[in-house]
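Progress note, project year one: complex with heme C.
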Amino acid sequence: MLRNTGIGILTFLIASSISSAGTSNSLMDIAPAGKSLVVCNNDNGTITLVDLVKKVAVREIKVGKKPEGVTWIGDGPRVAVTLYHESKIVIVNTATGKIEKSIPTPAEPYGIVTDAKGMHAWVSHEYPGVVSEIDLQAGNVVREIPAGSMPRGIAIAPDGKRVYVSEFYTGILHAIDLASGKTVDSWKGHSTDNLARQVLLHPSRPKAYLPHIRSMVKVNDGSGSIFPQVSICDLKPGKERRRTSFGMDTFNGIYVVTNPWEAAISPNGKRFYVIYAGTNDMNYCDVIDDDYKEIERVGNAVRIGQNPRAVRVSPDSKNVYIYHAMYFSVSIYNANMGFVKAIKTCEPTKTPEWVRGKILFNTANPPMSSRRWIACSSCHPDGGHDARVWQQAEGLRKTTAFVGMAHTHPLHWSADRDEVQDFEYTLRSRLMQSFGGLLKTKIKQKIGFHKVELEEKTSGRSKDLDALAIYSNSLDFPLSPHIVAPGKLTPAAERGKTLFFAKEVGCASCHSGPYYTDSSLKTPFKLHDVGTGRNDKSERMGTKYDTPTLLGVYRTAPFLHDGSALTLREVLTTQNKGDKHGKTSHLQKDQVDDLLQFLKSLPYETPPEVTGNTVEYRVQPTKKE
Ligand code: HEC
Ligand code: HEC
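Model obtained:
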């Protein structure tokens, strides 16, 4: 098919000279006048105001736990920031550095967009699966609109009539009509589409763009498991070609890029930029107005700094700003990606070892992988999970999130590892193909499914490997949104708690202690056959499993080692036919409901920083608080 050259581009250029802030979710936003920028330092709990004229950081402002999205309100100087771990948004006056309003919202506020006048904001809430509409003047939530499963990306249409959201774990795009508050259209992608944390719209063409990956769960190979994609959806109703996906690896010839995290379109509609958080690259492309080719690469992918997490273009389309999360800075480039200046936005948080560990965890570059296709974070985004069940050689394995991991060793469903440094074996495996890993020296050879990792001490032998462990064992997690207040359960959850701890039900005999697991590094490890092994025909490690923690299970479906329970209810009912996994068959339906309410309420209080099973390699807690 031939590329349509001039006319189409010209018409949309004329239509799109107005720009407003906050039309798609990002960690960074530029004020409409183009003179200032604000960026979320998400590990530090701060935002930084940058003066784009003087090209300096003006001030860093403390906002709260895990700011994940920011938008200017109207022309400024106020911005609205989502606090993902605090279930609220704050309105900050960037001129004074003061928080002017704190607005309680549903849980996990992630992306935020506003209308051009700054009257309303719309926020995606990941776990509850809603979009909230916020009256910025009154300072309250006026509506909660259902928005699919685990939405993260959010964008507002140029006419302000719709918002579009992307589901993080499926990449499905939904259009929500703001007048009716209803989902009026959806664009489904490939079943492997994953980690679609952003959506953005073209300023004049009816198109939505989603950077994401594909997780090929049947392939365990450094060059076949994870693919970088950009999906483009036609927003016009009833169009035949509704959703096209571009493999950004083939797009770049033989040059591999990993973990597309965010994209931007220049306000004049001509250029499309996409950053790769895993390989520290960036593509800049021409937007082609032909419904077919869509984007055309200009030059080769550009090497940029460590762990790019946000990209924005100035209102005059002349400058590109990139937030390098692990350089703790914003870099300014010209429109053709010539480097102008880097501006520091904050000090690194936590320890230098944690910083090094986070860099390694997020990168697909050597020394982590020789092939550059895959990073730890491709399956464990920010230490979370990918909602996938991988077919590994040892059997089906649901990816686990690292909630409380410093206290819940041994590791893996089959407890075949006793220290995070044992992931040296993963680095040397076909999955990561790191050649020699981080340890470089000889380690005991893995033969078959023998748990050789338990015999090989891998900690204390490589600074990088220890750093990887320190990062992995130091993730923050919030209290459950299902509680009344810290330490206080709903009446139903309170009844469920009684059942959980009752002898006749027996959950607490294995899910014991403050982390709700009997996992312990004391040998022999306690493994249990709870009747779940029969579900996995490919199992090669035996049907006894390590008791998983229950903290955070409200948001980590599917469940069990093989993901065979799609819901928590299935864990207790259809997947527990023989009462081998606690005794549940005698429970009435409302008792099961109560038990589920309790499970969903975990954690309802902050678990202790130290237990008898806490590992050494982590960021040690500070004394205060
Ligand atoms: C292809 C997806 C994928 C990649 C890439 C990946 N993991 Fe995992 N990870 C998984 C799965 C699946 C499990 C569960 C496996 C099991 O328990 O046997 C897991 C489990 C873990 C666990 C155990 C958690 C617990 O509490 O038991 C740790 C630690 C971990 N991974 C660290 C890493 C590190 C470090 C890297 C990078 C070197 C990495 N993973 C790369 C999919 C992945
Ligand atoms: C004999 C020990 C034992 C008892 C008793 C027990 N569990 Fe478990 N639990 C396990 C093990 C082991 C697994 C992992 C099984 C698997 O993955 O196939 C598990 C898995 C789970 C999971 C899934 C967690 C996830 O992340 O996928 C939930 C939820 C759960 N148990 C809740 C309960 C409840 C509620 C009870 C009481 C009715 C209970 N368990 C009783 C050992 C136990």
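The pocket of heme C (ligand 2) is lined by residues 413, 505-507, 509-511, 528, 530, 532, 545, 547-548, 550, 553, 556, 559-561, 568, 571-572, 581-582, 584, 595, 599 (CB under 6 Å).
Confidence is low (pLDDT under 50) at residues 1-19.
No further modelling is planned for this target in the current period.
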